[in-house]
Design a protein that fits this description.
The complex is a heterodimer of chains A (204) and B (173).
Chain A: H1 2-15, H2 24-63, H3 71-91, H4 101-139, H5 141-150, H6 152-195, H7 199-203
Chain B: H1 3-30, H2 34-51, H3 61-80, H4 103-122, H5 125-135, H6 140-147, H7 151-169
Amino acid sequence: MIEDLELDSWREQWSGFAEPSADLQRQVRERIDRHHWRFALDNVLAAAGFFGILIFAMFLRNQLSWLGTGWATGVCVVAFVSAGCRIWVLRRAWRPHTHSTRAFLELWHKRVTAQLLLLRISVYVSLGWIVFCVALAANNWTTIGQDVRSHSKEWVALLIICMLVLPGICYWVAWLQRRKTAERNEVKKILDEIDGNNFIDSSE
Amino acid sequence: MSESRRALEQQFERILVEHGGAISRLAYRYEAERSVREELVQDIALALWQALPHFRGECSERTFIFRIAHNRGLSHAGKRRLPHEPLDELKDAHHPADPHPHPEARAAQTDQRKRLLSAIQLLPVMQRQMIVLVLEGLSHSEIAEVVGIKENNVAVRLNRAREALKDLMGARP
């Protein structure tokens, strides 16, 4: 009986402290509209990027013939791999919020683990891409070498830009990996709590 | 606008009116900063809007809403790292008509409310969820459905959460 009175008292205090914003409906309506616009814009930009890369590959093949063979194919492969990754990510964007908390957390854990795996694969693909570029350049050096000699300043500038961008990308990848690992640990901690592994300890 | 779409919008508006208060209170649990919390309330409403067409009545509407709201709050907290600081702005939070006109009684009531909310804020994530659900008046079976545990585990876990809450509020000797 005392317990019930206590709970009733808490409920009274709890229910009285927050009221929704007066124009919540308008704010939500605006938020939904913004969400729809953003979703459409994301897809338009992704499609534009995909077709832009394909057009660039065609341009490489037709206009920059001195680069030699293989470059257009390489660019097309990168475009299709990127498009595949995007579709894969969208496929995983289910509506998990309707599940129970446990199911939601399990799904979240799987998703973060998959994202970490994808990140690792991306690093290997990037390294593979660099090796591919070097091999292709070596294979086509007779034609590329002439252009390098005639436009040496531009090539040096390009090389310097690449060297400057590379540490930035490495730093970003390391930061993303740390963030995702921390997120996975946080989810695992809550899952352990829901399973009762930490439930007693955490309350003491 | 199609008939089904209009019905959906009416259902959504009704949910916001009926459960807007509960969603706001739940957002308090996951976010201490006011501006971010308003965003979170809108995020929860957006998640509700997206999920509503898929609601087939497998559970009660209230369970459905609390599932979505809690899961959205959890994903927000997981990315923001859960804030454990007390809610400083409770003093200017909206309060309904006060049945105690005396300043002392009002001050005592405000103090009690602050202690309760600060203590809830300090509980581990799942205990907080259990306490919030029971404070919102959900039954044990509804809580089991929201959290995804067996109904006979709810009472045990709820007792532990209540004990922890009382400890944090300093209500125990």
